Amino acid sequence: MLDWTERATLVVALVFGVTLAGTIYVDTAVAWLCWGVAMVVLAGGVLIWTNRSQPPPE
User: Fold this and answer.
1) Which entry of 9, 14, 20, 25 is 20 to 30 Å from 3 by CA?
2) Which pTM was predicted?
């Protein structure tokens, strides 16, 4: 079974794919810019959440 970090990775991948398909369909410069910014924020947020949710190594 997948642990919570692996499930978060799958969710990020699915969100990436679905929103990429929508952005390709719209195909405007503003859509690409917003998609790029949103993916950076999403990936960064998940990385911060993952790193802060685990105790530091001893």
Assistant:
1) 20
2) 0.81
